[in-house]
Amino acid sequence: MEKELLISRVDIQKRVHELADQIASDYQGKEPVFIGVLNGVIFFFADLLRAIRIPSRMDFVRAASYGSGTTSSGKIQFTKNVEIDIRGKPVILVEDIVDTGLTLAYVKENLERKGPESLRTCVLIDKLERREVSVPIDYCGFPIREGFVVGYGLDYDEKYRHLPDIYVLKMAD
Ligand code: IMP
Prior knowledge:
Blueprint: E1 3-7, H1 9-26, E2 33-38, H2 42-51, E3 57-64, E4 77-80, E5 90-98, H3 102-112, E6 118-127, E7 139-144, E8 149-150, E9 166-169
Parallel strand pairs: 2-3, 2-5, 5-6, 6-7
Antiparallel strand pairs: 1-9, 3-4, 8-9
Helix pairs in contact: 1-2
The structure holds inosinic acid (IMP).
């Protein structure tokens, strides 16, 4: 499938470091728990956490909603839940991309029930075109309007995740 460069690795790293500085300054004196939504978040999560200059802890959830297509089925369930106790802790939920918002809203609601001290969201790409539920994004890497993006962890049918830059796929109509 044809693809076009959207965000270069240099721009990704620059933005990741800006987000890391902002989070470190907002959470000075605290030890936030970062929860990544697998699988797409892996590279973003790894780069972000290593750039944040305050102590942190980490865990992951995995929420299945996508099949092999490009639109959310709307049915979401955890295939992996958090394993560390987040009660009374400041938590930052880290996601690769928000499209309809259904996944992030589902994960956020579930984590809220575990009683964290606070719960913020950090998203690499906020894709605005197809939002169905409004969910607050506290730290946003790149807002984009539309398109299906791959690379830097993001896949299409489990392909392209390994690419260091972010591309937009040229879908046939
Ligand atoms: P949502 O529930 O519709 O917000 O979708 C969230 C999930 O859909 C993300 O975690 C991604 O796994 C996937 N997704 C949505 N848009 C894209 C895209 O443009 N590229 C790759 N994955 C996407």
